[in-house]
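Notes from hallway chat w/ T.B., transcribed later so I don't forget. T.B. wanted the structure written out for a chain they're using in a teaching module, and asked if we could keep both sequence and structure tokens in one place. Agreed to drop them here.
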Amino acid sequence: MMEHAEVDINKLKEYPNNPRLGDVNTIYESLLANGQYRPLVVNQKDNVILAGNHTFKAIKKLGWATALVYYVDVDDEQAKQIMLIDNKLNDDADYDFDKLEKAIAEMQDVGELIGTGYTEEALDEMLDSLPTNVDTAPQNASKEPSDPKITPVLDVVLLLTDEKFYLYKEAINTIADFYKINPTQAGLKAVELYADKVRLNEL
């Protein structure tokens, strides 16, 4: 049996001895900005996560109560095969760097790199490592000035009790829904709205 469900995270178990070392912080940032758009793959018989273990860790770090799950019903050997191939496929993947650079360039308005997994420094490092094409333009040809660098995205850590974190999430989701923006942008919007009220002495 295979099905989708929203499941209490306390019922889920990480795959034991998972060899993958994932970037939980980047997944955490993506979940904040984009939500959970890909379900965890979980074995129906024992609730062990076969794919998405680090997404599960990021969800717990966020304090979310539930996770989206895609259930499969497999034996132990098939479970290990799914875990291994999921890790291997990520290793084997590669990029068309011209298309990647174009896609990221389109997101480089202020704040738009949030949730993509890229920072300005990481992007510059990646692009600098790519082979450059031979420049066939005349030496005296004029070049378009490059865009000024955008300040790298920085993390903001909120130290809240469980109750206040729940209230914070509710408020951010309300702002995000109203302005049709992602939760990270909604957090910035909340600060801007509050600052406006302070300036106008409306508090």
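Follow-up for T.B.: Residues 134-153 have pLDDT under 50 and may be disordered. Might be a good example for the class.
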